[in-house]
Amino acid sequence: MTAFASPDKATPRPGLRVQGVRSMRLPWRFDVAAALHEAQQLPPAWWRSHFNQGRHDGGWQALALRSTPQAALDIQPVEADASVYEDCDALRACPAIQAILRSLDLSFQSVRLMQLLPGSEIMEHTDAGLCAANGEARLHIALQTDEQVFFHIAGQRLPMHVGECWYTDVSLPHRVRNRSGQTRMHLVMDVQVNERLATAFQQGDMGEASAHDDDPWAAFQRFRAAVFNAPALADELAACPDLSSLSARSVELGRQLGLEFDASDVESAMKAGRQAWVQQWML
Questions:
Q1: With a cut of 50, which residues of the chain have pLDDT below it?
Q2: Close Cβ partners of 247 (under 8 Å, ≥ 6 residues apart)
Q3: Could you report the per-residue pLDDT of 111-129, keeping only the tens digit for each?
Q4: Can you name the residues that pair with 23 across neighbouring β-strands?
């Protein structure tokens, strides 16, 4: 057993009220300056491009702090008890991060540093079954972020700020865009649900709204509403022969209306509605 595995505390019990929790800011706050400095000093060779290669543009990277020999890659979580996970050399080199984990007093499985480079995007995807209702929760602590980082789960933006700890139900469609000029870095922990975490859910909230109203997904929603009131635009988009041309034309028309969003917003909408989304333009 390693320093951050506590299986005796981690067995979910009947009655834990975690059903239906999509995302939440938990009641824990941290001074993360020392942890960020440690993370930034780790050797660049220890960082790996995220294994979900088809769903990012190359700027999504991870570094393992706790891993298991059962995994094909050290940054890849697997379904296994916390007792088979081990602290990595990187964690042993980071006493401030160790202190954060000790203060949380949870049963840790995979623990990673995850960064998204400036201008990069993680496209929409899901992590099947990974949610608190199934006994396993993914937590994020933002070490470095920006108002121009947009993290969405099921179409809802999570306003994560430095030092906050968030639960994210990643079994739902989620995506991240970094439109800022600095790297976004999070401490990402998979933990087993126990009484302590369930109590934290009951004390949590949805965070503080962003100070800037420039969310690209919100801009796309305004574009869609505008098209509903413009039959000529609706006809033009309905005539697009494929998703690529539909996305490109939507982005172009949006910019003409002063609305900045991405082709991936169109993709997300299509996933949610498929053909129904196209048909809704046909007035």
A1: 1, 7-15, 275-278, 282-283
A2: 263, 266, 267
A3: 999 999 999 999 999 998 8
A4: 168
Q: In a 3-state reduction of DSSP, which class is residue 196?
A: helix
Residues 6+ apart with CB under 8 A from 11: 192, 194
Look at the block and give the residue holding tokens 């990277």.
Answer: 61
pLDDT given for residue 2 in this prediction: 56
- 43 CB-contact burial (10 Å; exposed 0-12 / middle 13-18 / buried 19+): exposed
Q: Residue count of the chain, please give it.
A: 283
Distance from the Cα of residue 251 to its chain's centroid: 24
Cα separation of 283 and 262, whole Å? 24
Return the structure tokens found at 76: 């890849």
Is there a contact between 163 and 142 (Cβ–Cβ < 8 Å)? yes
Count the alpha carbons within 13 Å of 266 in the hemisphere toward its beta carbon: 21
pLDDT single digits (tens) 234-270:
999 999 999 899 999 999 999 999 999 999 999 888 8
What is the H or E stretch that residue 187 is in?
strand 184-192
The confidence score (pLDDT) of residue 211 equals 67
Q: What is the DSSP string of 24-83?
A: EEEEEE---HHHHHHHHHS-GGG-EE-S-GGGB-S-EEEEEEEE-TTSSSTT---S--GG
| pLDDT at 55 (0 to 100) | 79
Q: Are 261 and 226 in contact (CB under 8 A)?
A: no
